[in-house]
Specification:
The complex is a heterodimer of chains A (113) and B (111). With 113 residues, chain A is mainly β. Helix content of chain A is 0%, strand content 57%. Chain A contains no helices and eleven strands. In chain A, the strands form two sheets. In chain A, strands 2, 4, 5, 9, 10 and 11 form a six-stranded mixed beta sheet that branches. Chain A has a five-stranded antiparallel beta sheet with strand order 1-3-8-7-6, with no helix packed on it. The termini of chain A are far apart. Chain B is mainly beta. Helices cover 0% and strands 52% of the residues of chain B. In chain B, the strands form two sheets. In chain B, strands 2, 4, 5, 6, 9, 10 and 11 form a seven-stranded mixed beta sheet that branches. A four-stranded antiparallel beta sheet of chain B has the order 1-3-8-7, with no helix packed on it. Chain B is globular, with a radius of gyration of 13 Å. The termini of chain B are far apart. The chains are: A mainly beta (113), B mainly beta (111). Chains A and B meet through strand 4, strand 5 and strand 10 of A and strand 4, strand 5, strand 9 and strand 10 of B.
């Protein structure tokens, strides 16, 4: 069975600082990995995804994530936080060939001025 | 407008009542999904559908019923609402399996 662990339910950074949101997964087969963002009172929006190929993937709004198989991780980073990045971020995994996503419990990012 | 919509956006009901949450998408996506979002649990899959008249259970299907007579609609029914079903419900759709598009959500309060 697949599962996702997001370390830290709340992360606070200063504007302009590095953003690092951690995600570890478990999967019995090669995983497909996703990061979604949820702004207040809205649905989820896809930030980026890893399926195959290059392990460093770039997404929208300057975010990127690196798939590290040896560490079973898919951490999300952004070099410089902006106030508009404040939101909740969800990591998700699906096993290759299956459409069902398993989500982590989410990390709320606060950006301090 | 094109996209995925959910109605109602907010609903208050009482224990034991039947409630139906609606989901409509205009992309003609084959796949549709229902999730519930609860604090500390992220999103959990309730039911999904691969096409009209094809549905399957997800992680937490008990107490819910779905149908899909038309490709664009995927209603979720709580047959006899319980307080534990107080949650935010999200519908999603996808054609390419790796990208799901989410609706704005329905906040349901069961008293």
């Amino acid at each position: 069975a697949q599962s996702v662990t997001q370390l830290g339910s709340h992360v606070s950074v200063s504007e302009g600082a590095l953003v690092l949101l951690r995600c570890n997964y478990s999967s019995s087969v090669p995983p497909y990995l996703f990061w979604y963002v949820q702004y207040p009172n809205q649905g989820l929006q896809l930030l980026l995804k890893y399926t195959t190929g290059a392990t460093l993937v770039k997404g929208i709004n300057g975010f990127e994530a690196e798939f590290k198989k040896s560490e079973t991780s898919f951490h999300l980073t952004k070099p410089s936080a902006h106030m508009s990045d404040a939101a909740e971020y969800f990591c998700a995994v699906s096993e290759a060939g299956r459409r069902a996503l398993t989500f982590g419990s989410g990390t709320r990012l606060q950006v301090q001025p | 407008d094109a996209g995925i919509t959910q109605s109602p956006r907010y609903k208050i009901t009482e224990t034991g009542r039947q409630v139906t949450l609606m989901c409509h998408q205009t992309w003609s996506h084959s796949y549709m999904f229902w999730y519930r979002q609860d604090l500390g649990h992220g999103l959990r899959l309730i039911y999904y559908s691969a096409a009209a008249d094809i549905t399957d259970k997800g992680e937490v299907p008990d107490g819910y019923v779905v149908s899909r007579s038309k490709t664009e609609n995927f209603p979720l029914t709580l047959e006899s609402a319980t307080r534990s079903q107080t949650s935010v419900y999200f519908c999603a759709s996808s054609e390419r399996w790796e990208t799901q598009y989410f609706g704005p959500g329905t906040r349901l309060l069961v008293l």
